[in-house]
Amino acid sequence: MSVFPTSEKGARYGLRPVTDTFGSLPIAAAAPTMPAMRYLITMLAALLGLAAPALAQQDWPELDRSAEVAFFGITYLDDSIQTEMQGADPAEAARIGMLEELVADRFAEEGWTLADTAPVQDQIDRVVNPAKCYGCDTRAAADLGAGYSLVGEVQKVSNLILSMNLQMRDAETGDMVRGRVVDIRSNTDESWQRGMNYILDNTFFEEEGE
């Protein structure tokens, strides 16, 4: 199974496979521009970081539904020329909060208990990105007595190119037990929601028969 949405399911969420993205952005023509180079780097990093677990999605371990999940939020990574030239967009910070609420609500709706992360918040605040902190997320989750840590990222390369991921790890072993990355086209509330809903629907809470 591809780490990027390549089936009809992806089309339902308004997502495009990475091959389509490269097709719509000729590398030779875009090579001199920084956004294109950053996009290529982002996609390569995503493939190296999350492709293997996603490709073996049918082999995800069974989860302990009685265990709590420590959700440490979603980190926003902005490498765009627009932000360098025009400054941060408050709407994007608001969208991170929107996604965090969407994820937390969905886990609660699916019957999971989210741990109170306040006792370890100082540990999390000391790192730039809990999704890439050499296991600080799972250690913090273990300190809370939670069974799993949950972290995510949204990376903006331009207003037309963004990627997002969500990763769930076993607090004891540090192993990823669920995870997926998608790229989205356009920078709107709707496109961000579609991207995260795709991850949740097709990796974390995939219906039988899907």
TrEMBL record:
InterPro entries: DUF3280 (IPR021698)
Pfam families: DUF3280 (PF11684)
Highest taxon in the source lineage: Bacteria
Protein name in the entry: DUF2380 domain-containing protein
Source organism of this protein record: Roseivivax sediminis
